[in-house]
């Protein structure tokens, strides 16, 4: 009974706080209908949008007093647009694109450094991010800085930049596509004595089902999808690196390169760290003095509350639901 009472009290507190937050936001909305200050300078407009999105700028390196800026955008972890729990914050790809848009609107940003430490992710998510970077590259200088790992989709995204800088020991490459399935038929039938029954509208409706093995036609069908996605990967890398598809083909079998090896075969332009990437960005953008900044998210009341509610209800990440997906990803360890 005491335990039940504590839960009720906890829920009551959460409801009161959420109600207060919603009421406060509604009140602020009404307040905005009155006279407001209209930003006039590009700097005021930009900084106002950054605040509205919950982002702030943090000084990283360079000349703090310089007006020109180089923005570091961190591409960290699996490149996916999955969201967590009840949080209204965008998925990773949307968050990164939002940061790129902020940099695009800021006339003082002369270059962008993509700090990549990623094994890749779903094909579509990686391609969406790649496309935005290529579009932005028509207006701003973009440098990819490969950290510990920029494999598969991580390297795919890196190729959207004008130049690629990698540490000599960066793990990169792994050009290819994977689509994995699990087959539980033997375990269920032979070990547990369970046989699954399926009623379907067509022969291939349950293709990839974990309850049975795939036949030759099904494997061929999925292999064709993987091959098409792989061909797109190769073409994007070839275009970004200015390498012929024929020359790139032997390197695009999923093999892993160190940063040094990647430079030798033309997958990377220079070896170095953040300092070298900054100097290259300044050189290509034609600026002598620049301050290096990065955007970071400033949690607001609802972000805090939504995170706490998700933790309280044990809400999992959406992407944790198993599903067959074409992926530009390197995940050699079981179960990732």
TrEMBL record:
GO biological process per UniProt: proteolysis
Recorded GO MF terms: serine-type peptidase activity
SUPFAM superfamilies: ClpP/crotonase (SSF52096)
InterPro entries on file: ClpP/crotonase-like_dom_sf (IPR029045), Pept_S49_SppA (IPR004635), Peptidase_S49 (IPR002142), S49_SppA_C (IPR047272)
Domain of life: Bacteria
Alphabetical keyword list: Hydrolase, Membrane, Protease, Serine protease, Transmembrane, Transmembrane helix
Pfam families reported for this sequence: Peptidase_S49
Domain Peptidase S49 stretches: 138-287
Sequence intervals crossing the membrane: 9-27
Family note: Belongs to the peptidase S49 family.
Record protein name field: Peptidase S49 domain-containing protein
The organism of origin for this protein: Candidatus Desantisbacteria bacterium CG1_02_38_46
